[in-house]
Design goal:
Length: 298
């Protein structure tokens, strides 16, 4: 099959310049001179028959033709890189992960050493964030996020864990507050992050009237990890995912006083660009995680 392809070396230069919107930064990334970058862009513009960049005095922007070419160029080079990695047949290099704090602190930090021992040629760079990340702009290979599932056509997504939740607290707090006879007694206790919607779901499941004014009690911590630390310290009751705190429960630092556990279709998922699914380092991480969460991930 005959293809009308431009010079691939010029495409590689254009993709870097379009991503950075800078010939200087593209040259630094590719190990070229700025003059060489300008020449390759000129070669490509002659083949396209239109300018690919609008060159202002202080700012470089993509032209209409450049915008149409930028995305497909990045996708094509990513596919070539993935195919090359697959042909090499081994997982090497740096694997950049963006993970929500609760999953990172509650499970990943305790087990990531196992992955590193199994794959010593992969250097893991772990970033903690609750923000939605752009895989290309943030330089991230994979992300682990928690929430309700929303399908995105450009991403592959694997469910790792259903985030069940229930109130948990320290046994010292229960002793100080005089015990718990029923779920309604929790309203006598200081609540951690009472504005969290999980409280609404749990109190409804427990059949406990829950007034909007109750949300003004307590304080907001922002993440389960911080809420769990506050609960262990005896500062209040936190609504937590028991899976992440099995060791604390076993050691008696946290107590789950009632068997009412809710899910609300909330889950933690592994996500990565679909066009990188065959990257050996991503495949290695995915297979390792699926091995630890086989029922959900399947």
């Amino acid at each position: 099959m005959s293809r009308n392809l431009p010079p691939l070396s010029a495409v590689r230069v254009f993709e870097a310049a379009a991503r950075h919107l800078s010939f200087t930064r593209a040259a630094a990334e590719l190990g070229m001179t700025q003059a060489a970058v300008s020449y390759q862009i000129k070669v490509l513009e002659e083949r396209v028959g239109a300018p690919l960049f609008l060159r202002g005095k202080r700012k470089l922007t993509l032209s209409d033709a450049g915008q149409r070419m930028s995305g497909p160029s990045t996708e094509a080079l990513d596919l070539i890189a993935s195919g090359f990695d697959a042909a090499r047949g081994n997982a090497v290099g740096v694997l950049s992960m963006s993970v929500v704090p609760t999953f990172a602190a509650g499970w990943l930090a305790r087990h990531l050493g196992e992955f590193q021992m199994a794959h010593p040629d992969i250097a893991v760079r772990l970033g903690i964030s609750t923000d939605i990340v752009g895989f290309d702009s943030a330089g991230v290979d994979v992300a682990i996020r928690g929430g309700r599932f929303v399908e995105v056509s450009e991403l592959d997504s694997f469910k790792l864990l259903d985030a069940a939740f229930t109130p948990m607290m320290s046994p010292d707090l229960i002793e100080r507050m005089g015990g718990l006879a029923s779920p309604a007694d929790i309203l006598r206790y200081p609540l951690i992050s009472p504005g969290d919607s999980w409280w609404d779901v749990w109190f409804e499941a427990a059949g406990v009237p829950w007034q909007p004014k109750e949300r003004e009690r307590g304080w907001g911590m922002g993440t389960q990890h911080l809420e769990s630390l506050a609960a262990i310290a005896g500062n209040g009751v936190a609504v937590l995912t028991p899976f992440f705190y099995r060791e604390e429960i076993a050691a008696g630092r946290l107590v789950q006083p009632f068997g009412i556990v809710c899910t609300e279709a909330f889950a933690y998922r592994l996500c990565y660009p679909r066009n990188r699914r065959n990257s050996p380092k991503i495949r290695a991480l995915r297979d390792w995680l699926v091995g630890h969460f086989p029922q959900d991930a399947a």
